[in-house]
User: What shape does this take?
Amino acid sequence: MSSDLFDLPAISGLGTRADFVSPAEEQTLIAASDAVDRTPFRFQQWTGKRLTHSFGWQYDFQSGALDRGAPLPDWLLPIRDRAAAVAGLEPDALVQALLIRYDEGAGIGWHRDRPIYEHVVGLSLGAPATMRFRRKQGDRWQRVNIPLEPRALYHLSGEVRHDWEHSIAPMDRARWSITFRSFSRQGQRIAAAA
Assistant: This one.
């Protein structure tokens, strides 16, 4: 995957690929995603503006439990397989798919993905977005922003996945994302016991 971050400073473990899908594929994926029943994202007592649905495995932010969900639908499998190939992973390693719709004014706050997950491979659809990265260095924050153009794929692994937080700035029009994740060793152990 390209690590050329649009002339911005590179972060180890961050890869991007522009035009991962065609405009026609983008519209098909948006329509398929919109046909799935999604619910507002909930984290403890907080409800987010984005609408989500998980396939494969799902993490419950209320209870902290990992549960098996519905399998990835047939329409997602070719995209998962292509995303895995670009990220250098086996398709079956991507065990979770999260569909998100960000309506006007929605974004996502600073976070790291749960330690049960290792690789994060996301496809951005609809409106362009800015993905922000930060990590603490002494008493200051080091920050890098990258644009997420429509139809672009990104891959978080290694340093950027574990040492940096990321967020998506709120947008002024709708954006969709399809995010695939693999399990970490911890996630594999928990999934084996589920």
Q: What stands out?
A: Residues 56 and 91 are 13 Å apart (CA to CA). Residues 2-9 have pLDDT under 50 and may be disordered. The longest strand covers residues 46-55.
